[in-house]
Structure formats: C-alpha cells, structure tokens
Design brief:
Shape: elongated
Structural class: alpha+beta
Number of strands: 14
Order of helices and strands: HHEEHEEEEEHEEEEHEEHEHHHHH
Distance between the termini: 26 Å
Radius of gyration: 29 Å
Length: 375
C-alpha cells in the first residue's frame, strides 16, 4: 500500500510541486506571524524576567508595564517601602525612552539604570567589554542590535545620548524592548539623562524576606498614597495581555496564522482529493481484489503525511533563512519556539488528515464492477 500512496501523490509532479510551494508559503506565513508575536512578547517582558524582583512598584494609576502614562515616582517613597516588615531590599530602576545619535543618525532606545555593586538590572549577555566599567561617569553598554541602525560601533567609541557624549565600554546582546535596543549605564547617569527632577525615578523593585507572604506586602505597599505594588508575575501577565488583546498586534498575528493554517489545509485537501479522483479505476481494482476500508485509510493518510512533511520542511527552512535575515538587518523581533514548530506541524497534520476523509468516503462508494466495464 505504501507504493500506491507514493505513486498516486507523485503521479502529476508539476501539480504536486505547485501545491508544495503554496503549502510551504503557508507554513512560512504561520511561522513568521507567530515569530513576530513571540519576539514582541519576549522583548516587552525581558526586563521583567531579567531583574528577578518579587514586586514591581508603579506610580498610582498605571496598570501594566507599558501603560501610556509616564512612570515617574518620588524617590522618597523608598523609605516608606523599606519600613514595611518583610521587605528585604528596594531598588529604584530607571527604564525609559531616550534618543541616541551617531553620525547624524538618531534612534529611540531604552535606557536602563544599573546598580553594578549589587548586580541589579545589569546586562545579561556580554559580547565585549566589562560590566564593572559602568561605574565610570558617562559610560554605557549598548545592545548589539543598535549597530543595525547606527552603523559600526565598538568599545571606546563615543555616542550621543540626549545631547551628551558617552563612551561605549561594552556590547551585549538580546537586550531589546520590542524594536528598541537597550543601553545600560549606572543608575546616577541614567537618572541624569532621563529625569527632569533629580528626586524621581521610574520604578521600585522589591524583594521580600523568606517566610513573609508576598500578597500581604503588596497590599501594604498599595496602601501608600501615590504608588501601587504588583507581583512580578502579574506585571508580566498584564504586559502580555496588553500586547495580545489591547495593542492589536497579538490578535492580528494570531488571525494571520489562522488564515495561513486554513489555506494550508485546503491546499492539502484539494491535492489529495484530486489525486484520488484521478485514480478511481485503480481504487476500484483494489476494492475488487479485496482491499478494505482500512487499507484505503492507510493510503490516504500516508499521502497526507508525505505532503505535510515535505511542505513543512520547505516552510521551516524558508522561515529559518528569512528569520536570520530579518534579525540581522532590522530591529523587528522575530523568534521561534521549538514547541510552537512541533505544535504547528501536528496541528496541520491532524486537520489535513481529517479533511482527507472526504476522499476516503468517495473511495468507499466505488463500485468494484467499474473495473470490468468496457471489457
């Protein structure tokens, strides 16, 4: 039966190649749409994941990490937070937009105020340079993606941030908030760059002592007028929900993936159905010599397996090439998870198998006597 499945599917090679090209493009559309969604989500929450705080403190009224309202908190709230029983540490964080320039090119980036002494909010994947050098005045560590827009930059080069010259003392990678590369500097320098009022910051990040209930401390913090406290997991969840349901991008990419999946399944169904209808006499012969319904299911399911696997392989290969080009030449975040890849393969395989049963019904209705007609 295996040879029959392969023979039927590859009988018209031109049509098969056309179907496989269309199917591989459908797979690519699925992967690219989901890749953009995953890349965007990861970028929007990466600073939350990397700072490993138990509680995030926002100024009152903001509900998630990317709220449109500015994040400006009076630093004096730090004393009120530290006086709460169970609070182990309270670190201010500068994390906001600034403009960086180099050779008349301008780019919006995220400035991150680090505390090098306690390892708080420091770069996580260094490519060149030393993190300890951030303690120097007007020194910065830039994300590698910044080079895409501002050209070749290296350690000891100068760049302009908010109108003031800074020396690059290191380069890191995978530190990007959506399409905005991150620039790390010490906390004092970051505050001087971004804050009009020297007594303000953007966030407080709190860690609690072991044995204390986090939710109780969040409640106590939120009772302080002017600020709100949120569990780090809730901040992450709220940010992801904002990206998917409020920003429009998430639902758009999901819809694009859904359409591409439907198109792919339709292509497979049409290919299998056409190949089946063209071989009706052969199926009649098989039925006349005793082939069972189970035999026909095996033939058609294997045809689906062949076309889905070939189309998937071509689609994932195309996606890998395009992803590499996009990530190396643009700031658009594209990411893929092996779990998503495997899930998409089996989803399309299952849906395509179900639709191929239309062909099985046609085969099962064949009258074996057609083999002898015309004799």
């Amino acid at each position: 039966m295996v040879s029959i499945a392969r023979k039927n599917l590859f009988h018209d090679k031109a049509r098969l190649v056309t179907s496989l090209i269309a199917l591989s493009v459908s797979f690519f559309m699925i992967f690219f749409a989901l890749g953009m969604a995953l890349g965007t989500v990861q970028g929007m929450v990466i600073i939350i994941d990397k700072t490993t705080a138990d509680i995030w403190i926002f100024n009152e009224g903001n509900e998630h990490f990317h709220s449109p309202s500015p994040f400006i908190i009076d630093e004096r709230f730090s004393d009120d937070i530290k006086n709460i029983e169970g609070v182990e540490s309270c670190n201010p964080l500068i994390y906001t937009d600034v403009m960086v320039a180099n050779q008349k090119k301008n780019l919006r980036v995220k400035i991150v105020g680090c505390n090098v002494s306690n390892g708080f909010a420091i770069p996580w994947e260094m490519v060149d340079g030393e993190i300890e050098d951030l303690s120097q005045n007007n020194s910065v560590i830039i994300d590698k993606s910044l080079l895409i827009s501002l050209g070749d930059l290296a350690v000891n080069d100068e760049i302009e941030i908010s109108g003031k010259s800074h020396r690059i003392i290191g380069i890191c990678k995978n530190a990007k908030d959506f399409i905005y590369p991150m620039i790390f500097t010490n906390y004092v320098n970051a505050k001087n760059i971004s804050m009009e009022n020297p007594d303000t910051t953007n966030f407080f990040l709190v860690n609690i002592e072991e044995g204390f209930e986090i939710s109780n401390i969040v409640t106590e913090i939120s009772e302080i007028e002017g600020i709100d406290g949120f569990l780090s997991s809730d901040v992450r969840k709220g940010t992801v929900n904002y990206m998917i349901f409020e920003s429009g991008m998430g639902l758009g990419t999901i819809f694009m993936s859904f359409v591409a999946s439907v198109v792919g399944v339709i292509i497979i169904a049409i290919t299998i159905y056409t190949a089946t209808m063209e071989r009706i006499p052969e199926y009649g012969t098989l039925k006349a010599i005793g082939a069972s319904k189970r035999d026909f299911y095996k033939i058609l399911i294997e045809q689906v397996l062949w076309i889905v696997t070939i189309g998937f392989t071509a689609g994932i290969s195309l996606s890998g090439i395009i992803f590499a080009v996009v990530n190396n030449t643009t700031l658009v975040p594209v990411l893929m998870s092996i779990y998503v890849v495997i899930g998409i393969y089996f989803l399309v395989l299952i849906l395509s198998t179900l639709t191929s049963f239309i062909s099985v019904r046609k085969v099962n209705k064949i009258d074996p006597s057609i083999v002898f007609r015309g004799l």
